[in-house]
């Protein structure tokens, strides 16, 4: 199926779901108010969405993406934000991330790595110690000894990393300008109860976390970027960050996936 036909199908499915939701409103169970329903495009797939009015969240019925309706950033990504990681086990986390990457990609010495939202640079410094050429993108102005680039860089990367960062972007277009052979993404694992009880989940952060991905919506973003193959997925960071308890049940915490532009040879 071509991208055009796929987009059309997603839009049609979204319209059908909106009609069903509007027809069912008024029973007090949906958490939506019929007069306040608004149609807006999903920032991932373009399908029509219905607004969850209570918490400024919208749901795309086509790809399962949940996002902050106004996509407004209200947090300040300043020096204080960057230094919050100084008291966290960043070296241990960097080791977990590096081992996960190398167990699937086996990057060679001299490979070029970009970390988008690199924080205090702990992961990139671990990669540099392994002989990698490192670069970072972040909005803070702190100097952590990381060579920085912007989204218009002419460099081509062997790996682009998004550790707890892609959910902060109001729009994904800047990401699509980056050229890379593979990408790793770690995001909060969205629980089914998010729309009904967002405040009960630690990763619900209005004005900071603008996107709450489903597997389908994350795959769709990566496919728009040209990554057609998901090499692996799992929850490696949970060994340090722990599992959650949601609705009195254990739940996975941080989802991680590695994408490539085709199958990777293991030879």
Q: Helix count, per DSSP?
A: 7
Q: Considering the protein shown, what is the CATH homologous superfamily of the largest domain? A: Vaccinia Virus protein VP39
Unreliable stretches, pLDDT < 50, 5 or more residues? 1-7, 9-35
Strand count, sense and barrel status of the largest sheet are: 6 strands, mixed
**Could you give the order of strands across the largest sheet?**
6-5-8-10-15-12
CATH architecture of the largest domain: 3-Layer(aba) Sandwich
The domain count comes to 2
Distance between the amino and carboxyl termini: 32 Å
Number of strands: 15
Strand content: 15-25%
Structural class: alpha/beta
- Overall shape: it is globular
Instruction: Tell me, rounded to a whole number, the average pLDDT.
Output: 86
**Helix and strand run:** HEEEEHHEHEEEHEEEHEHEEE
Rounded to the nearest angstrom, the radius of gyration is: 19 Å
CATH topology of the largest domain: Rossmann fold
CATH class of the largest domain: Alpha Beta
How would you explain this protein's 3D organization?
This protein has about 270 residues and is an alpha/beta fold. The protein has two domains: about 5-70, no CATH class; about 80-260, 3-Layer(aba) Sandwich (Rossmann fold). Helix content is about 25%, strand content about 25%. The chain is built from seven helices and 15 strands. It has helices at about 5-25, 80-85, 90-100, 120-130, 175, 215-225, 240, and strands at about 40, 50, 55-60, 65-70, 110-115, 135, 155, 160-165, 180, 180-190, 210, 230-235, 245, 250, 255-260. A six-stranded mixed beta sheet has the order 6-5-8-10-15-12, with helices on both faces. A hairpin with a 6-residue loop joins strand 3 and strand 4 (about 65-70). Helix 3 (about 90-100) packs across helix 4 (about 120-130). It is globular. Mean pLDDT is about 85; it is low at about 1-5 and about 10-35.
